[in-house]
Specification:
This protein has about 550 residues and is mostly helical. Among the domains are: about 220 residues, Tetratricopeptide repeat domain (Serine Threonine Protein Phosphatase 5, Tetratricopeptide repeat, Alpha Horseshoe), CATH 1.25.40.10; about 100 residues, Serine Threonine Protein Phosphatase 5, Tetratricopeptide repeat, CATH 1.25.40. Helix content is about 80%, strand content about 0%. It has 22 helices and no strands.
């Protein structure tokens, strides 16, 4: 039973667009007959590679190299394919090109499966799947194709390890993605793989049903290689059921198709199954002819696996022909090639470990660089936040200080205006008080002048010899009482409650002392007071001294 691989179709037809840049991005990265892919030969791919290198377009270079590795694998040049892909993986890692690295991992895994390095193949498929899951654009065709290739590969590995029920989910997921891509060939591959699983768990009729579905899908997708693979698989099932004639017919069709498209690897696969079936049916001559043809082709292509298997079949054929020496000869050659396969497998395993070590080392370096970059971004973000906070704090403090200064300034202006207003009010009041004081002084002076005039008149009348009856109207005491009443009325208008407060504070004060206090309140001099009271200045001073001694706490500054 040959397990199926997702690499159908190979053709030498050209469908170039004439624009080499477009042709580069249409190169097949997984299989020669990818949908809408450029179908060309190795020489044209190398020309595209040369142009990409001249323009230093690294992604285009990687695409060309991968397309060449696909071509090498399809031509059975597995060792060359390994070397090419190892170089591609290193280059993609160095350029940090995740898309091409994903494709290279899948293709490297396919080569590992071809030489039965299943653990290495599983690791590379899982790495490719991990990279594909990490992309944000889940609908990108290359990413979807890569996921399909990885799932298909993991399913085939599970199949090889006889983990049949683990393989089915991989193939089912791959069919859904291929349906989303609209790839008939991709759906056919996974249908055929499901058929292979069912065949291995002894459900041949169900297996044939899925193989037939795969065959029709390959025909719709125009994949000659896919058709050939399905025919071989169906032939194996029919052979297991004892339907050898039908099986040989399927193998014959597969041989014709693979020979016409130049697919050596799958021709050898079909030939191997056909030879085994012919041996079972006793058609030894036909089996020997096909086996010898297989030896020539496998030697020319350098496919040691089928060369080994063919020599072992030739040994079996020689036994059937009763030629023991020739059978032993073929058996020895087969064992020699088998040992060389083991040696090559060990060598490739060592190379795989080296590549894995380099990959892990590169991943650690990338992880360390990503962590450093993350730390730098974190520090930068913290510094930016702190700077913003500092600027905000300084701005806030500046505005607070500014508003505070404005508030203080406004308060100062209000206080100044209030002081100015108070001063103006006080000045006005003082002016009014001064005016009223002057008015009081004027009244008092008028009264003093009147009293002085009356006194002079009385003196003149006395000198003329008039008696007391004539002089009584000019009595100074009466005049003083009337004048005082007039003065009190004016004084109370200016200083309300002055006399009341004076009497309440100093209960022992006399009327004469009240008058003296009133005159002193309006800042009259002793001379002016003497004229009003019609006494001498010395008498006024004496009264002031007596008032000061009797009432030391009187609030009159002139005392």
């Amino acid at each position: 039973m040959q397990f199926l691989f997702k690499f159908p179709g190979y053709c030498w037809a050209k469908n170039s667009s004439g624009n080499y840049k477009q042709d580069i991005f249409r190169l097949p990265l997984y299989e020669s007959h990818e949908s809408d892919s450029l179908i060309t030969d190795t020489i044209y791919i190398r020309r595209l590679l040369l142009k990409a290198e001249n323009e230093n377009n690294q992604e285009a270079v990687l695409r060309c190299l991968i397309a060449l590795s696909v071509r090498s694998r399809e031509q059975g040049q597995l060792k060359s394919g390994f070397h090419q892909l190892e170089h591609i993986i290193r280059k993609a890692q160095m350029l940090n090109n995740s898309r091409m690295l994903m494709v290279a991992f899948n293709n490297y895994a396919v080569l590992c499966r071809r030489v039965d390095r299943l653990n290495g193949a599983s690791g590379y498929h899982l790495q490719a799947l991990k990279i594909a899951e990490g992309f944000s654009n889940k609908n990108d065709r290359l990413i979807l194709k890569s996921k399909c290739a990885a799932l298909n590969g993991l399913g085939n590995i599970s199949l090889s390890l006889k983990q049949y029920f683990d393989a089915l989910p991989y193939f089912s997921q791959a069919i859904k993605i291929e349906q989303e891509l609209g790839s008939k060939v991709g759906m056919a591959i996974n249908e055929a793989n499901i058929g292979a699983v069912l065949e291995l768990i002894s459900l041949p009729d169900s297996a044939l049903y899925h193989y037939k579905k795969a065959l029709e899908l390959n025909r719709l997708g125009k994949s000659a290689k896919g058709v050939a693979i399905c025919l071989v698989s169906m032939g194996d099932v029919l052979a297991s059921q004892g339907k050898y004639h039908d099986a040989i017919g399927h193998f014959g069709k597969a041989l014709q198709i693979t020979d016409s498209i130049g697919d050596v690897y799958h021709w050898l696969s079909a030939n191997h199954s056909c030879v085994k079936t012919l041996i079972k049916t006793g058609r030894i001559a036909e089996a020997k002819k096909l086996a010898l043809e297989s030896v020539n082709k496998s030697q020319h292509a350098g496919i040691i696996f089928y060369l080994t298997q063919t020599y072992l079949l030739l040994s079996e054929i020689s036994e059937k022909e009763h030629n023991s020496s020739l059978a032993l000869h073929y058996l020895k050659i087969g064992n020699i090639y088998k040992d060389s396969i083991d040696a090559e497998s060990n060598f490739t395993a060592i190379q795989d470990l080296k590549l894995k070590y380099e990959t892990e080392k590169k991943e650690r370096q990338i992880s360390w660089l990503e962590q450093q970059d993350k730390n730098h971004r974190t520090v930068r973000n913290i510094l930016v936040v702190l700077s913003v906070l500092l600027i905000a704090l300084v701005t806030t403090l500046w505005y607070i200080a500014r508003f505070r200064r404005l508030g203080i300034r406004q308060k100062e202006l209000l206080l100044l205006r209030e002081q100015q207003l108070n001063k103006m009010t006080q000045d006005k009041l003082n002016a009014e008080l001064e005016f009223k004081n002057q008015e009081l002084i004027t009244i008092a002076n008028q009264l003093a002048s009147k009293n002085e005039m009356l006194a002079q008149l009385r003196t003149s009348l006395e000198d003329l010899g008039y008696s007391g009856n004539v002089l009584s109207p000019y009595n100074s005491d009466l005049s003083l009482e009337k004048d005082w009443e007039i003065f009190c009325l004016k004084f109370e208008n200016v200083y309300p409650h002055f006399f009341k407060n004076l009497r309440e504070t100093f209960t022992d004060i006399s009327v004469r002392e009240e008058r003296l206090c009133a005159y002193l309140r309006i800042n009259m001099t002793s001379k002016e007071i003497a004229q009003i009271l019609n006494v001498t200045v010395a008498a006024v001073d004496k009264s002031r001294n007596r008032l000061r001694k009797s009432f030391p706490y009187l609030p009159i500054r002139t005392l």
